[in-house]
Amino acid sequence: MKKKVVSILLATSMVATLAGCGSDPAPAAEAPAAEEAPAAEEEAPAAETPAAEEEAPAADDSAASGDLAYSGNISIMHFSTSEESEGNGGSDGFRTCLANWQNDHGSITLDEEVLANDDYKTQIATRAAADDLPDVFLLQGMNTISWAKQGIVYDLTDSIKNSPYASDYNMDYLVPFTADGKYYAYPALTGGTCTVVIYDSAMWEEAGFSSFPTTWADVEKAAEYFSGQGIDTIAFGNSGQWQLNSCFVSCLGYQYTGTQWFSDIIAGTGNFEAPEFVAALTETQRLFHDTNIFNKDFNAVSNEDAREYYISGDAAAFIGGNWDASYIQATLEGDPKKDTTKFAVLPQAADAGKYEKFQNIGLGYGMAISAKVASDPDKLAACIDLCQYLTGPAFSEYVGANYALAGFCSSDVDLSAFDQYTQDFYNFSYVDNKGCEIYDSYVDGSVWSVLNTEMQEMVNGDKDPATVAADTQAAYKAYLGQ
Questions:
Q1: Strand spans (E) along 395-474
Q2: In contact, 194 and 437? CB cutoff 8 Å
Q3: What is the pTM of this model?
């Protein structure tokens, strides 16, 4: 069975506009002139899962273009570490294509700075603040507008529209990297959910549940059983602060707000103090602070630490993203626990009025170029060539054949070549549930920094949800220049 990777139209109204700092909302990215691609019933796979049993082809080792005039060094900063690539299809594909491009261009030396994800976010922000960005780097969507306004990232609009691969680009992925109608990055790595409940079905059957509960009330009942066994019900890690936003609230929130609320936030007309969003924060505080569902050290451990609780059997479930689903599968290869590992959406909150089976999905990073590179046209051309290769057909074909994944380019994926785990995660991501946007792929880091920091205090019981909402709204208004 072949699935064609096509445009992901999560919610058309939610990608209509992007807010400009202190200006009228800017229009969303416009695709190159072409017929609008129809929405598909089954969309691009995002599960970052290991290769199928049959040997899949390696990445094409020919780069985006043959000869480049530039000779010298290009600095590049990313977070696809060798350790991460062992259990992450996107990182493996990125590193493989990066090595192929380097091998194809012997006169150019790539000076790599590779950091773990959390460290990368900190360091790239520090470099941006000092106007010292690497030549090529991963731009997070939430930083696009402010960094473009500062003039520190290069405008890639023409190079994207005129790319040799433009006809295969999924232009919807460009929205987080758009400011004032211009594009500032090639969407990179692989698209996938940031919120998936990964659970051991055998453990939940022992607790009296044939599948993962659909309500938090039932999860609380299960917690009584698991606590008696000395096991955490759900493992979660929030030491980096972003996890509670990306992997929980930006999905649970839609159960209370529906899709229009965040559409308004993106457009610059939203309100974090809206009663329905405060209610989502209130439920989040209750679940983490007032129940025994989660591991007590959730604010002290990382996402990676928490998933080890699940892998080791110290937790019956884990909440993370598609990268975790990939890592867990690779780690459990040959272990019976792999066969009992299943996937579910967040349960329904009792007072949520707009519940659907939401899971948030997107491409949150893109390959960007420092504006300073433009002073050397030959070097700029080489950097553009590198970005196009790392996000083009070579990458898509590699991750599609090896991991049933896709990126910025469309490709065909033969799901029949993959095991049940991979097919189950594909169905979770693109068949059975409703996609919604990831909060911090949009707006600005200055806003999310306030929300993330204060939510960490909130779930400790040290700050009330209304105050968190008010402080976030103040940061949002400051970002908008109001």
A1: 412-414, 434-436
A2: no
A3: 0.72
